[in-house]
Design brief:
The chain is built from 9 helices and 13 strands. The protein has helices at residues 36-51, 77-80, 94-102, 135-146, 168-172, 177-180, 190-207, 253-268, 283-292; strands spanning 21-26, 55-60, 87-91, 106-110, 126-127, 151-154, 158-161, 211-216, 222-230, 238-244, 274-278, 295-299, 305-309. It has a 5-stranded parallel beta sheet, sandwiched between helices. Strands 6-7-8-9-10 form a 5-stranded antiparallel beta sheet, covered by helices on one side. β6 and β7 (158-161) form a beta hairpin. The protein is elongated, with a radius of gyration of 23 Å. Residues 7-11 and 63-81 have low confidence and may be disordered.
């Protein structure tokens, strides 16, 4: 059985975008000392980060040192220029967060244990129990803050990752005459580029999935796109979609990546059913879908054949 762990392929273009250091910056609000429960959690978190391969430290701003090798800091702004570019900050204070963001740093909010959770405006992520976070989760949060794509899964020959704006032209080239018979090819105008960019900026962070790039591990080339989309009619149903470039069709790649994506959808995203649709003349795709375990489920609103996949109990 093929395994599909995320963030395990290390020959991709974006693999080096990981935090080199994780730094916790906390502020004692209203003159109150941080509770022992919070200090213990910070200590556990620093140890956990180091076990995962990240350098780590912590400090109060202002205040006494926290566990770890962080120093006492009285003016946050004097520190930022000295920090490595790949530092990932966690903070419980909105002013510190804002200062970090204004300095071009990557930071998330943090609710320490034993403290009353306070709003942290501007935080794209607010983390609790950081000592329980897995390495992949930390990397994904950091990548989202930097604008880098998430790696979704790997198969024997391919890496599935989120698309980037740099993928626009290669994605358009996938739509040859054969593909365009059944799929609408994206345009090449400025509006099309804007739509492509907005899809990346809005769909991935909101849903956690979408149509992803298929990368051939051997060469790093984009050879397809595949993933999940919602019904064009606005329903909540999730649909599998896939397209492989002409040069790489009929080599089993579509089946390979779709098997992995179905695993990801059911095991990681929790989908209890997944739909697909295809033109009745698209016999190659219909054959693949049925081989993957999709069963006929009637007709889609546009007249295409509708199929449904339900994972085995």
């Amino acid at each position: 059985m093929e395994e599909y762990p995320s963030l395990r392929h290390r020959n991709g273009k974006y693999d080096k975008i990981i935090p080199g250091c994780i730094r916790i910056l906390l502020k004692e609000h209203a003159g109150e000392k941080l509770p022992e429960e919070a200090l213990a959690e910070v200590e556990r978190s620093l140890q956990s980060f180091r076990e995962e391969g990240f350098a780590s430290s912590a400090a109060t701003l202002p205040g006494e040192d926290l566990p770890g090798d962080g120093g006492q800091l009285s003016e946050p702004g004097t520190l930022f220029g000295e920090e490595p570019e790949d530092t990932f900050f966690l903070t419980n204070d909105p002013e510190i967060l804002s200062s970090l963001q204004n300095a071009g740093c990557h930071a998330a909010g943090y609710h320490p244990a034993g403290c009353v959770p306070a709003p942290i405006p501007g935080a794209a992520y607010i983390i609790e129990e950081p000592d329980q976070l897995e390495r992949d989760t930390l990397i994904r949060i950091y990548r989202r803050l930097t604008g880098a794509p998430w790696d979704i899964l790997t198969t024997k020959r391919c890496l599935i990752r989120e698309m980037t704006t740099e993928d626009f032209e290669q994605t358009r080239q996938l739509y040859d005459t054969e593909a365009s018979e059944f799929l609408e090819a994206p345009g090449e105008g400025e509006e099309d580029r804007t739509f492509f960019s907005q899809y990346i900026q809005k769909v991935y962070p909101f849903f956690g999935y979408g149509m992803w790039a298929v990368i051939l591990k051997e060469t790093g080339q984009l050879i397809g796109r595949a993933g999940f989309e919602h019904s064009p009619s606005g329903g909540s149903e999730v649909f599998l979609g896939f397209l492989i470039g002409k040069q790489y069709r009929r080599q089993g790649i579509a089946g390979e990546i779709c098997t992995g994506i179905l695993w990801y959808g059911t095991q990681m995203l929790g989908f209890d059913e997944i739909f697909a649709e295809a033109d009745k003349k698209n016999t190659v795709s219909l054959h693949l879908l049925r081989r993957l375990g999709f069963a006929d489920a009637g007709r889609a609103e546009n007249g295409n054949l509708l199929l449904r996949y339900k994972p085995k109990e």
